[in-house]
Amino acid sequence: MPALANKTYFNYGGQGPLPTPSLQAITASWQTIQELGPFTTAVWPAIEATTAGLRQRLAQWLRVPAQRLAFTENVTSGCVLPLWGLPWQAGESLLISDCEHPGVVAACRELARRHQLTIESLTVSDLTGSPEQAATSVQERLAAALTPRTRLVVLSHLLWNTGQRMPIAAVAAQLNRHTNQPWLLVDAAQSLGAIPVAEAAAAADIYACTGHKWCCGPEGLGVTALSARLLAQSQPTLIGWRSLSHEGDGSSGFHADARRFEVATSCIPLFAGLDQSLQLLEAEGTEGQRLERIRELAGLLWRGLQQLPEVETLLQEPPPAGLVSFRLRRGGGAGRTVQHLGEQGLWIRSLDAPPCLRACTHITTTAAEIDHLLAALALV
Question: pTM to 2 decimals?
Fold first, then answer.
């Protein structure tokens, strides 16, 4: 990874560095397209092979049939495009956790404004104990928050700010027992490539992922897994030639599967790059083995932070994945701390809600890098 040659990097939750083989795959794909095309009869089989290969690989990762996967540019579009195509009725309610990303929250607020929906909040930001304790609390709070008007629940799989894991499969089962059977939208930006996702992806109605964070793929490409019932009820909102079953003159119907939410031209070399990054991760062990390594490193950092008297971690127990969020009791503020560490070649991130610092450990992180970060924080 060229990006790791000159820095100590803890920002996988923002963007993962691109491995050299993935960069080479992108370049090779560009070369092939230009040699065959870029718009000739000869180029289309190569393009189809690239996109179909990645769709099938992601289907294996998510354990979801390939026809229920739609390629998108990012998590936000993966959430919004199918969400806005659902049949909404004035007075229905959206129940959104208080740890959702602003992009998804803003989309839901605009959806509510246009359709005269109400928005309710589900508090999960204070769930700082074990994932098991959090799971119990989430289900209890959800039971108390659901009403006859609740039509959608929005809950991330791995909370991007506190780092806590949410019990997505259990929540889905709980919603299925509710009178309205509300849809479940899951922001999985911090999940794919970091934790096992199959159970949650199969349970949610919308499970939106990106390839540029924990998968260490290129930015600009993501995937969303859609439930069978959502595909039966949701119609495209942003429409292009890829939404159509036959391009023709535009008079054909939409794809019957998730491709109806794909819009138009995509950058095909990005597909080759993400496919290569996923293969590199597969070569490092099973998803369970990779998570074990990530948790080991996150736990090492978390325990080191406990030894610093001016540091307070958001979670009371070692994180369930690689997101380690914490606060400093002194210093010049989170932004100044990030800048100060960056001047030393150490890169973490500051967050606004809740105000904190966040460092991410991945399978590429080393114990020496963690020691380096802890030593620098001790001097802030």
Answer: 0.96
